[in-house]
């Protein structure tokens, strides 16, 4: 990745792209995904739209620091579709993304080399049509404190310009803050050293 606490992804799907090779048509789709369930939903949506196609090949990558990926040839010769698509995901340095390339066979066989080139090109066109954004890897902390300590907590949040993502302000207060990874340790220490104020890291789906 570009820096140790940033990553690149897309936030919205572009219009589908179309690539033609010897009468075969390749429709390219890109989706922002965070889980394998997201992947399944997007695949179902595309298969419904292109129910008469021959192949729905895809690749995805999930995660920021711990990466998982999958490439699927969906009936095409081994490594002729999914891996060329995944190669473009790597080339564009993006994650939390799914690329699906739908193929309609045009009656002329392309051969393994032709398939690799076509799926790679379709994925490339799809990524070029996507708006790629840079995001920071954040750590979420839950701060717990009594209402009497509210001013102390809020003063630090204001001074450090911290991003509150959730809050419950009653007798027993809870505030969730999201901090860029490289700044998180210092913020944790500030709150951790305060009397009667508890801070702990939250497990979140990044």
From TrEMBL:
PANTHER family: IMPACT FAMILY MEMBER YIGZ, IMPACT-RELATED. One of its GO terms (biological process) is regulation of translational initiation. One of its GO terms (cellular component) is cytoplasm. This is YigZ family protein. Belongs to the IMPACT family. Residues 22-126 form the Impact N-terminal domain. It holds the Pfam family Impact_N.
């Amino acid at each position: 990745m570009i820096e140790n606490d940033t990553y690149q992804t897309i936030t919205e799907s572009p219009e589908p792209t179309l690539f033609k090779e010897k009468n075969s048509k390749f429709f390219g789709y890109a989706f922002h995904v965070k889980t394998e369930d997201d992947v399944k939903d997007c695949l179902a949506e595309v298969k419904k739209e292109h129910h008469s196609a021959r192949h729905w090949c895809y690749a995805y990558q999930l995660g920021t620091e711990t990466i998982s990926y999958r490439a699927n040839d969906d009936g095409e010769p081994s490594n002729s579709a999914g891996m060329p698509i995944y190669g473009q995901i790597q080339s564009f340095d993006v994650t939390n993304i799914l690329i699906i390339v739908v193929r309609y066979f045009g009656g002329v066989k392309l051969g393994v080399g032709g398939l690799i080139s076509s799926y790679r090109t379709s994925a490339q066109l799809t990524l070029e049509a996507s708006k790629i954004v840079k995001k920071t890897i954040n750590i979420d902390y839950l701060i717990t404190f009594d209402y009497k300590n509210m001013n102390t907590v809020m003063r630090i949040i204001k001074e450090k310009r911290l991003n509150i993502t959730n809050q419950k302000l009653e007798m027993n207060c809870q505030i969730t803050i999201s901090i860029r990874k490289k700044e998180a340790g210092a913020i944790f220490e500030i709150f951790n050293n305060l009397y009667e104020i508890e801070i702990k890291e939250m497990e979140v789906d990044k």
